[in-house]
Amino acid sequence: VTLVAFGGGVVGLILLVTTYIVSRAAGTVIGRDVAGWLPHLSRSLVVQAARHLPEEHRLRYEEEWRRHVSEFDDRPLTALVTALGYAMSVPRLGHELAPAPKPARARTPFRGGGHIEGESKPARVTARLARLRRGSRPSAGGSTAWSSSVRPQQRLVEAVLILSAIVARLATAPLRLAHELMEGPDPSQFPRYVRRVAIAMVVILLTSIAFRIRII
Amino acid sequence: MGEHPQMTKQTLSILAVILEDPTVARYGLELGEAAGLKSGTLYPALARLERAGWLTSYWEDVEPREAGRPRRRMYEITGTGRACAQAALDEHLAVLRVRQPQRVAPKVLPA
Predict the structure, then answer these.
(1) Where are the beta strands (DSSP E) in B1-111?
(2) Cβ–Cβ below 8 Å for A89 and B42
(3) A97 chain-B contacts, CB cut-off 8 A
(4) Which residues in chain B have Cβ-Cβ distances shorter than 8 Å to A88?
(5) Residues A62/A65/A68/A72 CA torsion (nearest 10 deg)
(6) In a 3-state reduction of DSSP, which class is residue B68?
(7) Are B44 and A71 within 8 A, CB to CB?
(8) Which terminal residue of chain B, N or C, has fewer Cβ atoms less than 10 Å from its own Cβ?
């Protein structure tokens, strides 16, 4: 049993070292490539974003943002995140830059459905505000459905926690593989070993790319 | 001169940074970093203040080759903006003193 465990351990070690070397080399090559085209992507994103602004402001913001993004040439991922921020701000910025709207004409009172008979408009607004404060929808009927009752910040925290758990599970795949091999390789579990090696390769590959484009 | 801009947390942060030294013109990225704002929230707030006439902006007068960097769009507070921004910040602090006194440093009374 000791000999089998030792043999399994040695095989696992060789497998891990090989996986590391191959994945690291591939990650370096791919990372270099990604780092090469990220600045171009950031600039394109900024140009495309500025095109959605009112015409008289496009050139100014395009130039301003391109210059900002070019200040992060040595940090391509930061440049991309900054460019994404600009792209995401376009609807709000467009709203700020748009000419003031003409005063609305007096409209006839709303006669559509969607409200309780006899309920006045201020009461409807108050009820809607109260529902928003509670974070629920009227049709939910007190349901605590994740999508309707959880605040956006909570969702973000939960998403980060779930993502971290997945990443941790993936990152420990090589260790679990080594552990299983040390306990004695089982030929019937071969597909599982292959899966673990593949996961380990992906983890190391992604880490190498992350190092290359300076996320880490 | 535009209408009074909406005083959001972001707008107040930008004004607070600018009022630290109102004579200094700053560029967008610098303002964003100092105010702790992301690129996505900075420009709508700057546009709002510019539209209200509180800020003006102009292209920096430098030669990019000599400066070793691209020229920047500088933002500067106007005279009206300075007075209005100070008033807005004072008003905000007064409200905070009442609602969340623990978050505001106590007022220093003259001796």
Answers:
(1) 26-27, 55-59, 73-77
(2) yes
(3) 47, 51
(4) 40
(5) -100
(6) coil
(7) no
(8) C
**Interface with chain B: mutation pick from A56, A62, A64, highest number of B CBs within 10 Å:** A64
Rounded to whole angstroms, the Cα distance separating A214 from A42 reads 15
Q: What is the ipTM of this complex?
A: 0.79
Interface of A with B (CB under 8 A): 60-61, 63-64, 67-68, 70-71, 82-86, 88-89, 92-93, 95-97
* Amino acid of residue B8: T
> Does the pLDDT at position A158 exceed 90?
no
pLDDT tens per residue, range B47-101:
999 999 999 999 988 888 888 888 889 999 999 899 999 988 888 888 888 887 7
pLDDT score recorded for residue B99: 80
Higher model confidence: residue A122 or residue B61? B61
Please report, rounded to a whole number, the percentage of residues in chain A having pLDDT higher than 70: 72
Nearest CB to A97; choose among B41, B47, B71? B47
Give the list of residues 6+ apart from residue A100 with CB closer than 8 angstroms, or none. Answer: none
* Minimal CA separation from B99 to chain A, in Å: 20
